[in-house]
Design brief:
By secondary structure, the protein is mainly beta. It has a domain of 123 residues: Irregular (Factor Xa Inhibitor). The chain is built from three helices and nine strands, in the order ββββββαβββαα. The N and C termini lie far apart (61 Å). This is Major tail 2 family protein. InterPro entries: Phage_69_Orf23_MTP, Phgtail_TP901_1.
Length: 203
């Protein structure tokens, strides 16, 4: 039987970024409200005619990275301007949130470069948008990464219960549904469990 090939969707491919100089003090951040992401590595080729036939030659790898997003007030969107106007290096990660390995880590492409163009459109009847182009240094690196807790929450929020959220109770007393929960649940529960339901406190 042939293994099913999974199709990757553009909506599940996201760009994170960070100024390289901030690597020691902050996490990579998701660029909010992305509408388009283009990863374009290319290598020009040429050929030289010889008496024995054509000999192909190739140039060094060039990579362009482009992201479009709805303009917003966030640190990372301001940092992209900093990269452009002050010629600051940026780290970027393309994260595929529907491709994970056995350890639960996400497939990603890591790059370093500089913002070389940032086009801002402001039509009167639409949201302000930005189209940012990066010129990438060297060769992109491929690997697997763990999303920090804050980044995970930005990408895909998790189930929460009704209780107050704090450092010791990050899910509000809730437990996320598992595949093994199919068919689970009954009204045959203990009195103590029943008393935990809202409105059942007799005190």
């Amino acid at each position: 039987m042939t293994d099913e090939i999974q199709v990757l969707q553009g909506i599940d491919t996201l760009l994170f970024a960070r100024l390289l100089e901030n690597a020691g003090k902050e996490e990579g951040r998701l660029i909010p409200y992305q509408t388009s992401l283009s990863f374009d590595p290319q290598r020009d080729s040429d050929s030289t005619a010889t008496k024995s036939g054509n000999v192909a030659t190739t140039s060094s790898l060039e990579t362009n990275l482009e992201v479009e997003f709805v303009n917003n007030i966030s640190k990372i969107s301001d940092d992209l301007y900093t990269s452009l106007f002050k010629n600051k290096k940026v780290e970027t990660w393309i994260v595929y949130r529907k491709r994970r390995n056995d350890e639960g880590k996400y497939y990603a492409i890591y790059m370093r470069g500089t913002v070389t163009e940032d086009s801002n459109d402001n039509d009167p009847d639409d949201n302000s948008t930005r189209d940012v182009t990066f010129t990438i240094d060297g060769t992109p690196k491929f690997g697997w990464l763990t999303l920090p807790e804050k980044a995970q929450a930005e990408v895909d929020y998790v189930f929460r219960g009704l209780e107050t959220i704090d450092d010791s109770n990050k899910n509000g007393g809730g437990t996320e549904w598992q595949d093994t929960d199919t068919g689970a649940g009954s009204d045959d529960v203990s009195a103590n469990e029943s008393n935990q339901m809202p409105g059942n406190n007799k005190e």
